[in-house]
């Protein structure tokens, strides 16, 4: 049997428990050629899921009502009809909120057995690749440049600030709680702005009076406006997320967009899966930083599929303390 969580209704604002439903169904066996059965162990909770379940058209189609909630996960192959994918191998992919996932091997990636599998949902997964693409590939940072990152203590943000620091940049992180400020200081980011208690535009002017070279935006709205005020001529704005608008009926407005023209700014939005040709070099880079002790991470874990919705709630409220994960607690399987 397979326990899974389906989308029962579209959330109105921050997702609630009532928006989801736990179901237990028979496993869809036997496997076809090229398919594997994965025992899902860990599931990633990401801001993108807030968009996927909202019904808003995006780079991926919305999760349909009645479907298993879409999510990246890692798990162990327990049955295989695919050459080269042995039982006992760990894989990652869009496995969803469920205990078991029947999937074609073209939709998953093998991951090493000697590494903590949750790292492939975090610093060695889409989280890490997003940061690498934003800062290195698109941001094209250079030593001593000023780099500002919003949601800097989050999964993507915390990797991004560490990449920029390793490249010799002056790094400014923006976050919203004392504990997150301390975490950033613990990983070597001394210049941190608390957007809940400070005026972001004024604090940026104090910390970088000559202006900002690169900004990684995960928020949008008024925070992006504050950065535009302090951007150097020709600065790069890499748009990764817009958490301030997720779950809202209207996106937060951007008032100072004329500065993009007058300052000759470059603004670039991106979806990480459009850069899969950069994943191998990104992994090598991130692995090197990790082995050197220059890439640290935190995980915030919710136990059980029944509580998976709380992971999205914490993300939406900015209450997560590190990479948000859901641990799948398996009952005795009935295959």
UniProtKB/TrEMBL annotation:
Keywords associated with the record: Membrane, Oxidoreductase, Transmembrane, Transmembrane helix
InterPro entries, sorted: ADH-like_C, ADH_N_2, ER, GroES-like_sf, MDR_fam, NAD(P)-bd_dom_sf
Protein's UniProt keywords contain Transmembrane: yes
Keyword field contains Transmembrane helix: yes
TM segment ranges: 117-135
Residues of the Enoyl reductase (ER) domain: 13-326
Any one Gene Ontology molecular-function term assigned to this protein's record: oxidoreductase activity, acting on the CH-CH group of donors, NAD or NADP as acceptor
Protein name stated in the entry: Enoyl reductase (ER) domain-containing protein
Provenance organism: Stentor coeruleus
């Amino acid at each position: 049997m397979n326990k899974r969580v389906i989308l029962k209704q579209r959330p109105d604002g921050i997702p609630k428990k009532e928006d989801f439903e736990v179901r237990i169904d028979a496993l869809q066996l036997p496997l076809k050629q090229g398919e594997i059965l994965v025992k899902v162990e860990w599931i990633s909770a990401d801001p993108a899921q807030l968009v996927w379940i909202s019904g808003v058209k995006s780079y991926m189609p919305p999760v349909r009502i009645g479907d298993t909630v879409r999510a990246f996960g890692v798990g162990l192959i327990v049955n295989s009809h695919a050459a080269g994918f042995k039982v006992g191998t760990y894989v990652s992919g869009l496995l969803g909120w469920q205990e078991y996932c029947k999937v074609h091997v073209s939709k998953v990636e093998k991951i090493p057995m000697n590494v903590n599998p949750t790292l492939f949902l975090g610093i060695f997964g889409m989280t890490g690749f997003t940061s690498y693409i934003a800062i290195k590939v698109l941001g094209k940072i250079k030593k001593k440049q000023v780099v500002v990152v919003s949601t800097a203590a989050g999964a993507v943000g915390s990797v991004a600030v560490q990449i920029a620091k390793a490249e010799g940049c002056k790094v400014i992180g923006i976050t919203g709680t004392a504990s997150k400020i301390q975490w950033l200081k613990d990983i070597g980011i001394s210049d941190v702005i608390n957007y809940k208690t400070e005026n972001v535009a004024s604090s940026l002017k104090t910390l970088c009076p000559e202006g900002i070279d690169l900004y990684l935006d995960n928020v949008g709205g008024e925070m992006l406006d504050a950065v535009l005020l302090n951007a150097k001529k020709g600065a790069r704005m890499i748009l990764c997320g817009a958490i301030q608008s997720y779950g809202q009926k209207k996106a937060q407005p951007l008032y100072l967009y004329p500065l993009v023209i007058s300052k000759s700014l470059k603004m670039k939005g991106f979806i990480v899966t459009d850069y899969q040709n950069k994943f191998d070099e990104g992994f090598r880079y991130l692995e090197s930083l990790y082995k050197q002790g220059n890439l640290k991470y935190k995980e915030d874990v919710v136990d059980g599929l029944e509580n998976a919705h709380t992971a999205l709630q914490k993300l939406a409220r900015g209450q997560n303390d590190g990479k948000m994960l859901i641990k799948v607690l398996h009952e005795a399987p009935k295959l």
